[in-house]
Amino acid sequence: MKVTAGQLLKDRNRLPPNAVAALVDGRTVDLHTPVEATETTEVKPILADDPRALPIIRHSTAHVMADAVQRLFPGTKVTIGPSIDSGFYYDFDRPDGRFTDDDLARIEAVMKEIAVGDTPFVRGVMTREEAREKLTKMGETYKVEILDGIPAGEDISFYQHGSWIDLCEGPHVPSTRFLQAVKLTSVAGAYWRGDERRPMLQRIYGTAFPTQKALDAHMRQLEEAKARDHRKLGKDLKLFMFHEWAPASPFFLPRGAHLYNALIAYMRDQYARRGYREVITPQIFDKALWETSGHWENYRDNMFLALGTDALEPTREGHGVPMSQVFTLDEKVTAALASVSSGYICGCKAMNCPSHCLMFAADRKSYRDLPLRMADFGRLHRYERSGVTHGLSRVRTFSQDDAHIFCTEEQMPAEIGAFFDLLDEVYRDLGMTDVKIMLATRPDSGYLGTIESWERAEKILGDAVIAKGRTFEVAKGEGAFYGPKLEFHITDAIGRSWQLGTLQVDPNLPERFDLSYIGADNTAHRPVMLHRAVLGSLERFLSLYIEHTAGWFPAWLSPEQIVLVTVSDKHLEFAESLAARMRLAGLRVEVDPSNEKLTAKIRNASLLRPPYIGVIGDKEVESDGATLRKGRTDLGFMPAADLIAKLRAESVAPSRAPA
Questions:
Q1: pLDDT of residue 456
Q2: What's the first-to-final CA gap in the chain, in angstroms?
Q3: Which of 77, 485, 532, 571 is catalytic?
Q4: CA 622, CA 474: separation in Å to the nearest integer?
Q5: Reported confidence tier of residue 6, pLDDT bands at 50, 70, 90
Q6: Which residue has the higher pLDDT, 422 or 2?
Q7: Which of 5, 160, 258, 497 has the CB geometry, 3.0–4.6 Å to 22, for a possible disulfide?
Q8: 473-475 and 435-440: which strand pairing?
Q9: What pLDDT was estimated at residue 5?
């Protein structure tokens, strides 16, 4: 017998007034969802203050926002409105103008009126024909397109509150009364389906919480995040820039290039101590590589493609393009690919793993050669749609602290354990010690390999976490198409969670590339392949690290470890002499040669947020030293020899400092 989850809870006297959804046999559903009611059915309420309720509250709030928008701006069409980590959004096609800050205030006011009305959400199901007729009559052309994408056999569900109705699979809260703590935050452009060839929509972002207190705390965090925004700090601190002629591709200025290179040098040192060997691989590969790896089928739309002259001539009226010219999958190139039966078609490297498989296979391997740890800082290129690129955190060209470990199955526990040790040391050195581990498991569809191979790999990863005395949460269906993975999430200085490191068991690429080694029994065996990264994309890591530190980098990473400022011009010669001694000691130092007042010099130096500022006047010249400042704290006078020793001690990562 089927009843709604809410009725089942009510029948069992387990439906408190603050229940927003239910957990039925481990699956989250709203209280309107029909479920099988048997004696063995397990059902628990999800209360409003439960973290599992937050996505439901936010998705329901997106519906209320869309209702308010269509009340205020008739003729606006709705598209999608999901919950996201920071809140929710809804994309609108508004033909009569753009949303302004004043519009957001008006929309928010109407949303609050709807919320206090305590209007119930009601779930309904239609046939595909009924749904098409209704959506067409409503003029919701985008929803018709979504309807066409729903697989045959699945319920076509709608949710309605008051007179407003939307095609949606849910789940939703029981009533709008749960949606009173809400704030609309911004408007941005977004292409329909993330495709720049489709209509440009307007995306309204907002957030919602179960209580006003929780919302207020979040808004304070947003204000702090705004002050730490890496895009703003990147400009203020002269770290990086962008240009329209290289979309979503950062230019690292000298100070930013130092940070970038310092991170690579640090990771190289870590690798050297742990038995990794660095390799360099090509940027462009024949599509045969990507077909072999499976990326051509599963990832081609996110790759930059290069086509040789011979391949393009038949479709470009005899006018080819240089081999070096790179294309995305626009309509012309798609047509070219479809018509070319021979010629050179290739893709820019979007990941390193297939090329590492080629290197492993280049010569005969013995079990004595394993484990083989292959590191690669090579540049990667991925075609991220313009609607999702964001500062350094989502770019089209980047480098990773990428490595692949080829080993025997017996060596896996030790290799995974060693990776944990590496990751822990790196994160401690960088001041990020709050780490949560997620196990991302097999997607429902589109994956390579067998279910058995996935389950085996998932167990190996989970057992490795437990063996290290750690715990993990399962991210069901979040694995890559070629294998399950561990994700390492850190919490930054203002409480936000970021995914950084990954460790992935890949049972598929060794099979696809027919990799083997000769075992002790003198027969061929398939190696195990581990994909791993500690920082991930260096560009993305810098985006979060800039925000984590608010631009106050530790001395061992900072572009300059000290800036020397003088009271007057007569002290400049000594400052330059002291700077020269510091440079000979391997320190990074800058001198302000301007003739501005001391307060202005200190202020200007502080804008770049160096670890230390050294002030030099008569006393400092006479005593051969500098008066040291760290932020707004005056540390007093320090003799040159002591100052140099102090800075040298702080010039290495904490894990490499002398005991």
A1: 85
A2: 69
A3: 485
A4: 64
A5: confident
A6: 422
A7: 5
A8: parallel
A9: 83
Mean pLDDT of the chain: 90
Question: Is 148 considered catalytic here?
Answer: no
**Known active-site residue 382:** yes
Selecting among 172, 382, 442, 629, the annotated active-site residue is 382
CA–CA separation, 65 and 62 (whole Å): 5
Q: Respond yes or no: is residue 346 known to be catalytic.
A: no
Q: How confident is the model at residue 162 (pLDDT cuts 50, 70, 90)?
A: very high
Reply yes or no on whether the pLDDT at 414 is more than 80.
yes
Catalytic option among 346, 348, 353, 357: 353
Mean pLDDT for 168-177 is: 92
Pairs from 449-458 (Cβ < 8 Å, separation ≥ 24): 449/482, 449/483, 449/507, 449/508, 449/511, 453/507, 453/508, 454/479, 454/483, 454/484, 454/507, 456/507, 457/483, 457/484, 457/505, 457/506, 457/507, 458/484
**Half-sphere exposure (CA, 13 Å, Cβ side) for 96?**
9
Please say if 218 is a catalytic residue: no
Query: Is 349 an active-site residue?
Result: no
pLDDT tens per residue across span 67-94: 999 999 999 999 999 999 889 999 999 9
Catalytic residue (choose from 30, 67, 402, 429): 402
Whole-Å CA distances, 287 to 38, 284, 304, 343: 54, 9, 11, 11
Residue 370: pLDDT above 70?
Answer: yes
Q: What is the pLDDT of residue 326?
A: 41
Dig out the tokens for 303 from the structure: 């790759």
Chain mean position to CA 606: 30
- What are the chain's domains? 2-45 (no CATH), 52-219 (3.30.980.10), 257-283+350-549 (3.30.930.10), 562-656 (3.40.50.800)
**What tokens were used for 46?**
């999800």
Say if residue 371 is preceded by a cis peptide, omega within 30 of 0. yes
Catalytically annotated residue among 202, 270, 400, 504: 400
Q: Are strands 87-93 and 200-209 parallel, antiparallel or unpaired?
A: antiparallel
**pLDDT tens-digit readout, 570-584:** 999 999 999 999 999
Helices (H), 139-211: 141-148
Q: According to the 3-state scheme, what is the secondary structure of 589-621?
A: EEECCCCCCHHHHHHHHHHCCCCEEEEECHHHH
Q: Which of 242, 267, 249 is nearest to 400 (CA)?
A: 267
Burial of 404-415, coded b for 16+ CB within 10 Å and e otherwise, reads bbbbbeebbeeb
Residue 92 pairs with which residues in a beta bridge? 78, 202
Structure-token pair, residue 372: 């083989």
The label of the residue with tokens 């103008």 reads 97
Whether 333 shows a pLDDT value over 60: the answer reads no
Q: Give the pLDDT score at 343.
A: 54
Q: Which of 349, 381, 404, 601 is catalytic?
A: 404
Model's pTM, two decimal places?
0.81
* CB-based contacts of 181, cutoff 8 Å, min separation 6: 208, 209, 210, 211, 212, 214, 215
- Is residue 279 helix, strand or coil? coil
470-519 per-position pLDDT tens digit? 999 999 898 887 788 999 999 998 888 899 999 999 888 999 999 999 99
> Which residue in this structure is represented by tokens 């560009």?
539
Q: What is the Rg, in whole angstroms, of the alpha carbon atoms belonging to the chain?
A: 29
